[in-house]
Design a protein that fits this description.
With 122 residues, the protein is of the alpha+beta class. It has a domain of 68 residues: CD59 (Ribbon). The protein is 25% helix and 30% strand. A hairpin with an 8-residue loop joins strand 6 and strand 7. The protein is elongated, with a radius of gyration of 23 Å. The protein starts with a helix and ends with a helix.
Length: 122
């Protein structure tokens, strides 16, 4: 009986509470890195990038309970563009990723380059 109690106590200490997610939590006009331990309810690290033509870039990194990745195209000159990136590993929001999806960027380059080369000279 004593062995069973000792085993249960050892497992309880070894398992312990689940480790909290760690994210960079900061707000800046450039890439910022400030590691923080998130609340227990937080399951995602986010990086929100807003590009405003008149005021420049704003990078907002945080811990959140839920996250939906987004990418918004610039609609008008004063409207700006933005994106939300989500990840679920410790300090995974350290690097800034391009706001444009890679597939769209590759397609634009693939279609644009031949058009430039084949277009009549002006």
């Amino acid at each position: 009986m004593r062995t069973v109690l000792l085993l249960v106590a050892t497992l309880a200490v070894a398992v312990g509470p689940a480790l909290a997610l760690r994210c960079h939590v900061c707000r800046s006009s450039s890439n910022c890195k400030e590691p923080k331990e998130c609340p227990a309810s937080a399951r995602y690290c986010t990086t929100m990038i807003t590009v405003e033509p008149l005021s420049g870039n704003l990078v907002n990194k945080n811990c959140v309970d839920s996250c939906v990745p987004t990418h918004a195209q610039q609609v008008q000159v004063s409207g700006g563009a933005g994106s939300t990136q989500c990840c679920q590993e410790d300090l995974c929001n350290a690097q800034l990723r391009s706001a444009a999806p890679r597939a769209a960027l590759s397609l634009g380059l693939a279609l644009g380059l031949p058009a430039l080369l084949l277009a009549p000279r002006l």
